[in-house]
Design brief:
The complex is a heterotetramer of chains A (160), B (476), C (622) and D (493). With 160 residues, chain A is an all-alpha fold. Chain A has 6 helices and no strands. Chain A has 2 domains: 79 residues, NADH-ubiquinone/plastoquinone oxidoreductase chain 6, subunit NuoJ (Four Helix Bundle (Hemerythrin (Met), subunit A), Up-down Bundle), CATH 1.20.120.1200; 39 residues. The radius of gyration of chain C is 31 Å and the shape is elongated. Chain C starts with 7 loop residues before the first helix and ends with a helix. Helix content of chain D is 78%, strand content 3%. Classes of the chains: A mainly alpha (160), B mainly alpha (476), C mainly alpha (622), D mainly alpha (493). Chains in contact: A-C, A-D, B-C, B-D, C-D. Chains A and C meet through helix 4 of A and helix 22 of C.
Chain lengths: 160, 476, 622, 493
């Protein structure tokens, strides 16, 4: 149980760090660390496929991309973003955490244990047989992402 | 043509006609004015053809059911025919007058569109027998009023137009709440099905909000004098002849024809309207802008009509119905005279005018005749209506109210003659000839009509008596 | 004689009025001829109707018990005849007097329109036509006064209109109350005990009648009109028509509609009103400097006698009041016409400027003197007879104080007329006025006719009494006492007559004392009375219109309007204009401050919202 | 073939960038509009008689063997499809001229069609996770479209919108997980049936709370609305029209309604929470709109307020209330789309969005002024336009279901709504012409055509309200009124 909570605290710590760090490079690395922790948590909760994807895609591919772009654009300097930290958000965030801890644990215990594994079969069959509509959705999201990149990074005849 | 097609035509001709005016406007300015006069004339004539039906005292109900209980009902009875006749006739006169009045202004297409839409919606409201459609036409009239008041597009004028629209919309929406509360009890919006039901006090209060906002009774009246910024033809149409009569007609249609007022309200309404009448008369005696004075005077006279209706006896109701006709003619005349004066002297402040009787004799006489009729002095029409209303009040056992009404009549005489002497008598400050012939002609017609209505009062009285007996089921 | 003929006295003059209005200025002669012809026809029909005595024309009009009901009976035929008589005299007089007046056409039209309405009011037998014609007179009253053409005539016209309007409106309220009490609008069927609500109705209708007749509180427009309106108007309306109509209605109220009991509260009220009117008006008249204003105050004062007479509710008194009505109409009209004739020739009616005109204008002088003596109640003239009857009635009613007031009135009436007559006709000639000739016959003839009538009705008073007055009271004699006034009408050897003659002598002495004291200047004859310590103050106040109910009334009206406007209308507008808009802006400003664009804030709200929603659902779910 | 609603826009979106290389403007315009027109016609005509006999269920097969794509089309989703197609087509027509000076039109149309496809997919989804997924599709496309202008504040607004939406979808995912945990399945019918037996009230309560937060943010209800007043004004006009008109309704209100009413079943607690949220956002947003100086920000706040009306209507739970809510959803989609398009024309003509600088534009741009007036009066609920009928039905439902306080609030808010629309009319169109705009010309052809199309729709529905209600709104309301049984009975696969 302690290992589980330690991993969770690590995850939260690194993700907060990713936001607070001034240096882009350092924050990209801390983001990779956070997703690493997440992958381990997936494995411990016997969701192997999720864990594999998490580590390979998020920890690996995206971090590489980030570092590559940062290096290429040599924009390693600090981010001059205004550091206005006002008291509103932290207060509610802490309140949310406390309530979440109190309520959710007691609540979830009441949920009946999941019946046997709903859909057996390999990840592939599940993805293909059970969730094909999601595939259509997935394709649409990728398409959207591509077009977004194309539109947002268009040059030339941008503003009249 | 049976009654149903005539009524449908009376409603649709002006509404469809109004949307066609911009097209006529494209052809030429003359084509548009001719089109506007034609449409308003047809609308004025159609209800007159129904008068024989009205004289037999019959009541024709036309029903066409639509979704969710909002079925389209038309009530063709002497009351609605009388109201339709009066409003469309005065509306037509005002359209003729406005051809001369605004031929120099811009965006006239919109002006004629809105005036005809106004008359069409008024016809729709007068014949509608379903609370929701009554509300629907009520709001169309509010839209056209808003556009008309803001006709000159000055920032201050448009703010006044917005104020007028908001106050009337607020009143109307609260009235709608009252209708829905009644719907909760009788679960129908159809007036003919609800005749005689006793209505809860709160619903009455809510509905009165709407009626008082539209007919500008004291708590919700300040938009009417402010709407004086509109062109005179609009103020004539609004203040005198048609708009303010809607609130009064709705009161008659709802609280006399259909619902029974709870006891408390029967005592309270006359007092409220009398206070309103007195306050407005007081304000009129103090104001110096001629159109504001006439606007306050309208608020004061509307108090009489409400008084007559709320007495709920034969004399009171017939007095009020006659009042609608007589006041419509006389007050429209007063406004149009004011229009000619303002058009010539280019100021609205009566202290800067004087001695205009020498250069504008016809307007002066017309103003005098119409003032006599508004005050209620024979042989002009206004006398009979005010006399009957007061007789009704006394007969209903409220002599004190009658005394207050008469005191207000004296106050009316005081401020109307204050205006007449300041504007037309005394020495001539700004000599100004009478402008266009068509305007003076219309004013003269209105004055002669006021006199004729007084001398031959028996004919409108016949129709009014039938409407009264038809409407007051509790007397039968 | 079909009932439809009853419409003639209404429609003929109305039609004639329209015609006269239309005739162009150039055809003046044709207009005059037409007017005279019309008046003559009316007079002829006056006699015809008088002979006819009873006719009824009733046609349904507005429903609800309101129908166009005309009824001719002895009282209305008598008044109709009198109206026609005065109409023809005034028309004849005006053909010359109004010759060069700017709006003469309008004048004739209004005169005939007034005649039409007056006839209608007299003939009406249903309250609604009565009010219709009665208030119609307001329009012509306003029109006629504005014809005066002086700068202030507009103001006076409005003043007259407002006062008469107020009275007519109170009469409407009275009629409304009477309708609820009696249940019917037909005047001939109404007969109610004046108690409770009916008493209020009586008082209100009395106000209407007294207002029209020009009694005390409602009289203030008459003296102003005397100066601002044409003199023919003064002779026509305030002197003759209004008195006839007002007292006719007052008589009908106290005789027909309500059973007025002698000695009852209401009769005392009437008598007080009459007495007060007599005394105060005559005191005002005494000190006037202008002949027309003097005569106008006398017109007001004489009405006091009629109201006092009717107020006694004693048959003798009522008969006296009614007889005084017709007598007064005659000599007052005569006096105004002679004043008009003087003004026609000399251009002014200032007593100071006039003097010794009897040689240049003998006929006018003779007419004026006869009428003056008649109004003062000098023996054998008609004024004496009717005043005596009023004195007898007042004494018989038991309240001697009113008789004394009447006598005091008589004293000052004679004193003021001595002053007027002496300074206009009998004093020595002043230089201000050039030599003048006698007025044209068309002016002088009416004066002489009226003077003759005064003499006739005085000397041979049996004729008017039996012919006109007696039938009116026929139905109302309770005590069964035979209504014979004529027996001791003219004998002077009874205490009442002696006292009145004593009053006249006293007045003469008063005048002589004033005349000598002011160094033989007749127009200052009233100074001794004028300069009495307290009285002097009151006179100045009265001249400054302090006691004029109309001026105070207008101030009250204006004050009330200001209060209503400032205390009720503007605050409501302030709420709509300011309070609502400012409140809207303020509240919006607060909310907008919360939208400062910080992402953290927005996220914080989302979390807060989530917590609240979750809490609410779980709480409510229990 | 209801998969067409999703597949067609995706395919067209796919080929558009390639086509874009060939001809920069004509073909992309033509293609996009043709696709949307087809969808509109398909939804309007064939759709209706499809659902005549109850919900249409489609089990797709890929070359013979069945594939787990289960789509369901019933009254409610057809109404949404119709709304999407209508406003989408109008926005597309509008963007023919409007997007000229933005450049990269082909990409713009591609993103636009992906968003449409996302919305259509969400409406047809029968599975909780599909709902989440297609919501993401539409969201990603909308992030890009909001930032399409590449201006500084557009990027910042898009970024804020993205981040907040990510938080929202995270909470939705948690909720889906909880439900999956409880019922073991994601399919609506199965979940609904399972929840009936399980009486895990508290868990469902928490799940609906999370859902409410997620969908609330998507629907921009008051506590969660903060992103909308920044995102919509900075988006190009057709996009803010589609965002305000459709996206917040489809991904917010539709999803919330479908799940709460058909899957969970509307409990009294949930109904009160929904109604109070609706009322709160109605009033607060109306006051906020009153104080705005920027035309599009005012319209954005007005959208929040009107969505509050819709949620209030649907929250009542009575058949009439739901019908009123749906009718208002439909009317608001049309009218608010129209208003944003007109604000786009004004912005393009005058170059500014600040109301104080505008003045009397009606003189130079009569058609835009007239259509703006129609849209404004329709939303304000002034008869005879369509907005009045829907608000009327909502208020009647409120009074009948015994909520007089909410009815009064609804009434007073419609007065407030009229107030700020009159303010906009007075400042922008109805006053005296500001001499700065003397040279301003009326908007180009396609832009005015789009606004006139929507305006005529508003007026038409206003007049023929009874046939609109019976053909489109009533079937949708019946589906929702049946609550959970609508799904359990007929949606079983």
């Amino acid at each position: 149980m302690i290992v589980q909570t330690a991993l969770l605290i690590g995850l939260v710590l690194f993700s907060v760090l990713a936001i607070l760090l001034r240096d882009l490079l350092k924050s990209a690395i801390s983001l990779a660390a956070a997703s690493l922790f997440l992958g381990i948590i997936f494995f411990r909760m016997n969701a192997p496929y999720a864990g594999v994807f998490e580590i390979s895609v998020v920890a690996g591919l995206i971090t590489v991309l980030f570092i590559l772009t940062i290096a290429l654009t040599k924009a390693g300097d600090e981010v001059r973003e205004s550091r206005v930290v006002n008291w509103v958000f932290p207060l509610f965030f802490i309140a949310f955490i406390i309530i979440d801890a109190l309520v959710m644990k007691g609540l979830l215990r009441k949920i009946p244990a999941l019946a046997s594994g709903a859909e057996t079969g390999t990840f592939g069959d599940v993805l293909w047989k059970g969730r094909t509509f999601d595939l259509v959705g997935q394709i649409a999201v990728i398409l959207a992402g591509v077009f977004a990149v194309l539109a947002l990074f268009r040059k030339g005849d941008k503003h009249d | 043509m049976n009654a149903e097609t005539i009524v449908l035509l009376t409603i649709l001709v002006p509404i469809v006609g109004s949307f066609a005016t911009p097209l006529a406007g494209l052809l030429s300015r003359r084509a548009r004015s001719v089109w506007a006069i034609l449409v308003s004339a047809v609308t004025a004539v159609l209800p007159l053809t129904l008068i024989p039906l009205a004289l037999q005292g019959g009541e024709v109900i036309v029903r066409k059911s639509l979704a969710l209980g909002f079925d389209f009902v038309l009530i063709i009875d002497p009351l609605s025919i009388f109201m339709a006749g009066v409003s469309s006739f005065v509306g037509c006169l005002i359209v003729v007058y406005s051809v001369g009045y605004i031929h120099k202004e811009e965006n006239q297409n919109e002006y004629y569109l809105m005036v005809l839409l106004f008359i069409g919606a008024m016809m729709g409201l007068v014949f509608s027998g379903n609370l929701i459609f009554l509300y629907l036409f009520w709001e169309i009239i509010a839209i056209s009023c808003w556009r008309l008041i803001g006709f000159y597009r000055e920032p201050a004028h448009v703010r006044k137009a917005d104020k007028a629209f908001l106050v009337t919309f607020f009143g109307a929406v609260v009235m709608l709440l009252g209708f829905i509360q009644i719907y909760g009890i009788t679960n129908t919006f159809d007036i003919t099905a609800m005749r005689g039901t006793l209505v809860p006090g709160t619903a009455v209060l809510l509905i009165l909000f709407g009626l008082f906002s539209k007919s500008a009774t004291v708590p919700l009246h300040t938009w009417l004098p402010d709407a004086g910024v509109a062109p005179t033809t609009v103020t004539a149409l609004l203040h005198a002849a048609v708009l303010v009569k809607i609130g009064v007609y709705a009161f008659a249609r709802l609280f006399l024809y259909t619902f029974r007022l709870p006891e408390g309200w029967q005592q309270a309404i006359p007092i409220i309207v009398m206070v309103s009448s007195l306050v407005a008369a007081g304000a009129a005696a103090v104001e110096n802008d001629i159109k504001r004075i006439l606007a306050y005077s309208t608020i004061s006279q509307i108090g009489y009509i409400f008084l007559g209706f709320s007495m709920a006896n034969a004399a009171g109701i017939s007095g009020s119905l006659l009042f609608i006709l007589m006041h419509g003619l006389a007050k429209a005349g007063l406004f149009l005279c004011a229009g000619i004066v303002i058009h010539a002297v280019h100021t609205k402040d009566i202290r800067e005018m004087g001695g205009l009787v020498k250069t504008m004799p016809v307007t002066a006489i017309a103003f005098l005749v119409c003032s006599f009729s508004v005050i209620g002095i024979p042989p002009f029409g206004g006398f009979f209506s005010k006399f009957l209303v007061i007789m009704g009040t006394v007969q209903a056992g409220r002599p004190w109210l009658a005394a207050a009404a008469l005191f207000t009549a004296v106050l009316t005489m005081y401020y109307l003659f204050r205006v007449f002497s300041l504007v037309f008598l005394g020495e001539l400050k700004r000599p100004a000839p009478e402008k266009t012939k068509s305007m003076v002609f219309v004013v003269a017609v209105l004055a002669v009509l006021s006199l004729a209505a007084g001398l031959f009062v028996a004919y409108p009285m016949k129709l009014v008596n039938i409407a009264t007996t038809e409407m007051s089921w509790w007397l039968r | 004689m079909t009932p439809k003929m009853l419409l003639l006295p209404i429609l003929l003059p109305a039609a004639l009025a329209v015609v006269l209005l239309v005739i162009p200025r150039t055809l003046r002669l044709v207009r005059n001829a037409l007017a005279l012809a019309g008046a003559a026809v009316l007079l002829y029909y006056g006699f015809v109707f008088f002979a006819l005595k009873d006719l009824r024309f009733n046609v349904p009009w507005l429903g609800m018990g309101i129908d166009f009901d005309l009824r001719l009976y002895h009282f209305s035929s008598f008044i109709l005849l009198a109206l026609a008589g005065f109409l023809i005299l005034i028309t004849l007089y005006s053909t010359v007097k109004m010759k060069d007046a700017p709006r003469a056409r309008e004048f004739f039209a209004y005169v005939f329109l007034t005649a039409a309405f007056a006839n209608g009011a007299v003939l009406a037998n249903n309250f609604v036509p009565l009010v219709f014609f009665w208030e119609g007179l307001l329009v012509t009253l306003y029109g006629l006064i504005t014809i005066g053409g002086r700068p202030t005539s507009g103001r006076t016209a409005v003043k007259a209109l407002l006062i008469s309007g107020f009275c007519d409106f109170s009469m409407i309220l009275g009629i409304g109350l009477l309708w609820t009490v009696s249940g019917t609008l037909t005047m001939s069927q109404v007969s109610v005990e004046p108690t409770g609500l009916a008493a209020v109705a009586f008082v209100l209708m009395m106000i209407g009648a007294a207002g029209k007749a020009g009694a005390m509180p409602f009289h203030t427009w008459i003296p102003d009109a005397a100066v601002d309106a044409p003199v023919t108007f003064m002779a026509f309306l305030p002197a003759a028509f209004e008195k006839l109509l007002g007292i006719y209605l007052l008589a009908r109220i106290s005789l027909d509609f309500f059973k007025l009991r002698p000695g009852s509260g209401l009769s005392v009220l009437l008598m007080v009103l009459g007495a007060v009117t007599i005394v105060l008006a005559v005191l005002m008249a005494l000190v006037q400097k202008d002949l027309k204003r003097l005569l106008s105050y006398h017109a007001v004062s004489q009405v006091g006698y009629m109201i006092l007479g009717i107020g006694t509710a004693v048959p003798f008194g009522i008969a006296g009041g009614l007889f005084h009505m017709i007598n007064h109409a005659m000599y007052k009209c005569g006096l105004f016409l002679s004043a008009g004739s003087v003004e026609h020739r000399t251009g002014t009616t200032e007593l100071k400027k006039l003097g010794g005109l009897r040689k240049e204008m003998p006929l006018t002088a003779f007419g004026f003197t006869v009428c003056a003596l008649a109004i003062s109640g000098v023996w054998p003239l008609n004024g004496f007879v009717s005043k005596e009857m009023v004195f007898h009635g007042a004494l018989e009613s038991g309240y001697t104080v009113f008789a004394i007031a009447a006598w005091v009135g008589a004293i000052f009436t004679f004193a003021s007329f001595l002053k007027a007559g002496h300074s206009v006709f009998f004093g020595e000639r002043t230089r201000e006025i050039p030599a003048v000739k006698e007025s044209q016959p068309a002016i002088v003839v009416p004066i002489l006719v009226l003077a003759a009538l005064c003499i006739l009705f005085g000397v041979y008073n049996k004729l008017p009494l039996t012919l006109f007055i007696q039938p009116i009271l026929a139905g109302h004699v309770e005590a069964g006492a035979h209504l014979d006034f004529t027996s001791h009408a003219l004998d002077i050897f009874n205490p009442v007559a002696l006292i009145s003659i004593g009053c006249l002598v006293l007045a003469f002495l008063l005048h002589r004392h004033g005349f000598l004291k002011s160094g033989r200047k007749p127009y200052l004859a009233s100074e001794p009375v004028h300069n009495l310590p307290v009285v002097h103050k009151l006179y100045d106040l009265a001249e400054a219109r302090v006691f004029d109910p109309y001026e105070q009334g207008v101030k009250v009206l204006h004050g009330l309007s200001l209060v209503l406007y400032k205390a009720v209308d503007r605050p409501i507008d302030f709420v709509f204009e300011k309070v609502v808009t400012v409140a809207g802006e303020k509240f919006t400003a607060i909310l907008r401050k919360a939208h400062n664009g910080h992402y953290a804030n927005y996220l914080a709200w989302c979390l807060a919202g989530l917590i609240i929603v979750a809490g609410a659902i779980s709480l409510l779910a229990k | 073939m209801i998969i067409l609603f999703v597949a067609l826009p995706l395919v067209v979106a796919g080929i558009l960038p390639l086509v874009g290389k060939v001809s920069r403007r004509v073909v992309p315009d033509l293609l996009a509009n043709a696709a949307l027109l087809f969808l509109l016609v398909y939804a309007a005509i064939t759709g209706r008689h499809l659902i005549a006999g109850g919900p249409v269920l489609q089990q797709l097969s890929w070359f013979g063997e069945p594939v787990a794509i289960r789509l369901a089309l019933d009254g409610f989703s057809l109404l949404m499809l119709l709304a999407i197609a209508l406003v989408g087509l109008a926005a597309c027509l509008f963007s023919i001229d409007y997007m000229e000076h933005y450049g990269a039109k082909a990409n713009y149309y591609a993103l636009f069609l992906v968003m449409i496809a996302g919305m259509n997919g969400l409406v047809l989804a029968t599975d909780l996770f599909n709902v989440y997924l297609f919501m993401e599709v539409a969201a990603v496309a909308s992030y890009a479209l909001v930032a399409f202008g590449l201006g500084r504040d557009e990027l910042e607004a898009a970024f804020k919108y993205l981040l907040l939406s990510v938080v929202a979808t995270a909470f939705i995912l948690i909720s889906v997980a909880v439900i999956f945990g409880m019922t073991g399945s994601l399919d609506f019918a199965a979940v609904a049936k399972a929840l009936q037996e399980l009486n895990a009230g508290a868990a469902v309560g928490v799940a609906s709370a999370f859902f409410l937060m997620g969908f609330g943010l998507k629907a921009a209800l008051i506590p969660f609305h903060a992103w909308l007043p920044d995102a919509h004004p900075s988006a190009p006009a057709p996009i803010s029209a589609v965002l305000s008109g459709l996206l917040i309704k489809v991904s917010g209100v539709y999803a919330m309604t479908r799940i709460f009413l058909n899957v969970f079943g509307l409990t009294p607690a949930l109904s009160t929470v929904l109604m109070s949220l609706g009322a709160l956002s109605m009033v607060v947003a109306a006051f906020l709109a009153l104080g705005q100086k920027d035309m599009k920000r005012m319209l954005a706040y007005s959208s929040i307020s009107q969505v509050g009306y819709v949620v209030l209507g649907i929250g009542i739970g009575t058949p009439l209330g739901i019908a009123g809510g749906l009718f208002h959803l439909f009317n608001h989609a049309l009218a608010k789309g129209l208003l944003f398009l007109t604000s786009g024309s004004v912005q393009q003509a005058t170059g500014t969005r600040d109301l104080d600088e505008m003045g009397g534009l009606a003189k130079r741009m009569p058609i835009t002024a007239a259509t703006n007036l129609v849209g404004a009066l329709s939303i304000a609920g002034v008869p005879p336009l369509n907005g009045f009928w829907s608000k009327l039905i909502i208020i009647i439902a409120l009074v009948q279901s015994g909520h007089p306080v909410f009815a009064v609030i609804a009434v007073l808010t419609s007065v407030l709504t009229l107030w700020y629309y009159l303010l906009m009319q007075r400042k922008a169109f109805f006053g005296k012409l500001n001499e700065k705009w003397a040279a301003v010309k009326e908007a180009p052809f396609w832009m005015t055509a789009a606004t006139v199309f929507l305006a005529l729709l508003c007026v038409g529905i206003g007049i023929l309200f009874s046939s609109t209600v019976t053909t489109w709104i009533q079937p949708a309301a019946d589906v929702l009124a049946d609550g959970v049984h609508a799904v359990i009975g007929s949606w079983g696969f």
